[in-house]
Amino acid sequence: MKKTIFIFASSAFGACLPFLLSAQERAAPKENPALDTVSSDLSGLQLNDVHRLELEDAVKRRDYKHAEALLVEEAGRDPNSVRAAKLLVMAGGMFFLDGQYLNAAIAWKKAEAIAPLDDPSKFTLAMAYVKLNRRDWARPELEKLAADHPQDPLYLYWLARLDYDAQNYAAAITRLKKVVELDPKMMRAYDSLGLCYDYLGQSNEAIKHLNRAVELNRLQSKPSPWPHVDLAVSLVSVNQLTDAEKHLREALGFDLRLPQAHYQLGRVLEMQGSYQEAVQSLKQAIALQPAYPEPHYLLGRIYHRLGEDQLSKKEIAQFQELKKASEAQPVANSSSLPK
């Protein structure tokens, strides 16, 4: 028994870990900048009729592998031409849509060595670097875009997201305040502001900005669950559990498959003493994301309270194993990309 109690004490930080989520992890599913790099007008690629129709069909069917192969093969016919650059730019977009972020970055860098990239390609290249967990590569790309377009809040917003990832919350807040000046209706900026203030321990400021994010989110055609989840976490920190539960259930109404929402609902239910309901929420989080460590930790704590020591030890062991695996994940090798 003493060993189990020691494990809980040493892992007490685990309940808050999911909300140190990176820009990559927090990106809304509908954010897909590669769509701006994949043109429906293929005339500039100078394909023959057979290959043009073949590419159009592959794109329409979302057969990205076939489109990638065709574009790369065509670019290889005259690899230093402006035409090759155009083919590689579109190939980069296909690779990004296909989740092949390193290949996407390589394609865009090869294209850039021939001719300057357009702004959508530069931005999506930065997003590929974020996906590769190479924010040090993404930052200079975004800084150049922000310098060229000082009135565009998008690039400042993403620079702030990188500051957030680096836990440089003061710098992120400075940028985000500028973002909401440029675009007072950018829901994501208010959401990020709330998170920054929350990590600085300024709960009132956090809740104020997260409430604004929630208001704007409800006006979206496809609302995101994240502002409600983030607000719930801040409300928990000031012991407003009833309101936190309400926002988590609203978040699940927007996306029933978001494991973080189920996990946080499990946290709130546990704090309210509704252990069986909490167990169900945590099991749902695990079912949706088997590699998610924190629900196992909290399940272990609940089972311990319920006197289920074998189940408790099993969940804590699983938590520790998953945490170790997640911390060992590699990042892209800096030698992988052409300079």
Write the layout of secondary structure elements.
Blueprint: H1 2-10, H2 23-26, H3 49-60, H4 64-77, H5 82-97, H6 101-112, H7 119-131, H8 135-148, H9 153-165, H10 169-182, H11 187-199, H12 203-217, H13 226-237, H14 241-254, H15 259-271, H16 275-288, H17 294-305, H18 309-327
Helix pairs in contact: 3-4, 4-5, 5-6, 5-7, 6-7, 7-8, 8-9, 9-10, 10-11, 11-12, 11-13, 12-13, 13-14, 13-15, 14-15, 15-16, 15-17, 16-17, 17-18
Q: Could you explain how this protein is built, in words?
A:
This protein has 339 residues and is mainly α. It has a domain at 59-132: Serine Threonine Protein Phosphatase 5, Tetratricopeptide repeat (Alpha Horseshoe), CATH 1.25.40.10. Helices cover 69% and strands 0% of the residues. The chain contains 18 helices and no strands. The chain has helices at residues 2-10, 23-26, 49-60, 64-77, 82-97, 101-112, 119-131, 135-148, 153-165, 169-182, 187-199, 203-217, 226-237, 241-254, 259-271, 275-288, 294-305, 309-327. α3 runs antiparallel to α4 and α15 (259-271) packs antiparallel against α16. The radius of gyration is 23 Å and the shape is globular. Mean pLDDT is 88; it is low at 1-20 and 334-339.
